[in-house]
Amino acid sequence: MSNNSSQPFSPCGPLRGPLTTGETTELNTLDIGNMEPYLFQGVVLPERAQLSLQFALGFSHITSGIAGVAKVSVVLNQVAVWIETDHEWDIFDLRNVVKNLVQSHLDMVGYLKGYTYDFEITRVLNRSRGIDYVFGIDIPCLAERGKSLDLNAELIKLCDKTTGPNGVFLNRCFSDLASAMKHADDTGFYCYRAIESLRHHCAATHSLSSADKSTQWEKFREVANCDEKTLRAIKLAADPLRHGEAAGITSDDRAALFMQTWEVVDGYLKNV
Fold first, then answer.
1. Mean pLDDT of 183-209
2. For residue range 87-96, what is the model confidence (pLDDT) as tens digits?
3. I need a surface site. Which of 120, 139, 163, 219 has the fewest CB within 10 A?
4. In the sheet where 38-45 sits, what is the strand order?
5. CA 190 to CA 196: how far, in whole Å?
6. Whole-angstrom Cα distance, residue 8 to residue 91?
């Protein structure tokens, strides 16, 4: 389940190291020992909006303290990222770090120019460690639970449920679940917001939109056949992120969060 993990990182400034706040050194003089670089390849989307830039920065995990240096080259939206680090990373964990580093830079470009860019990582290589891997799009714990489904039949059922004026709440739920899978560091935020959309759907379909939240949640738990403890566990993972804090999550915890959330959503959809 290692491709489900996320750890927040602390960028230590462009083209700088060592990786402690207040100390800077030109990158070309940084002593990185015998680090074997990981090479990540990817693309900036949409490709029709061409972008070229280069930058380098040191980074460290806020929670683990693991440090490294990232050198990023974007040429006409084609991306190469070299990660120099003494740590032998799980490639899925490091993929999430690289995704955050590059996407954060693209988000700054977006802020300055009014553009919206996304970053997709496709491959990682590290010759000395025998790594040459093309990334898929699946979340293993979720892909496993859904592998026996008849996709067309289930999709028809969901489409039927999303018709009508209250369908917007279900569509928002599915959108947030997709975002939870795409954005590892914000998984808890999107999982809980997806369930909140279902609470609104439940209230609307049971004429409780004007009722207090306690009444709405009680009705939701009844329809979804879930307990308050499960919902509070999901909310606990979301709370720091909802208030702008940086929070890490382990591979196992992220997988458990996905399973809890999907069970709640499944339970609700079966009864509406």
1. 96
2. 888 898 889 8
3. 163
4. 9-14, 53-61, 67-75, 78-84, 38-45, 118-126, 131-134
5. 10
6. 16
Tell which residue, 119, 122, 116, has the closest CA to residue 101: 119
In angstroms, the Cα distances linking 244 to 25, 237, 247, 251 are 30, 13, 9, 22
Residues paired with 67 in a beta bridge: 60
**One domain, residues 202 and 247:** yes
What is the CATH number for 235?
Answer: 1.20.120
CA atoms within a 13 Å half-sphere pointing along the CA-CB vector of 126: 19
Residue 245 has a pLDDT of 84
Q: Which domain holds residue 25?
A: 2-134
Same domain for 229 and 215, yes or no, is yes
Q: pLDDT tens across 25-65, in order?
A: 334 444 445 668 999 999 999 999 999 999 999 988 766 77
Last residue within a domain, chosen from 134, 169, 197: 134
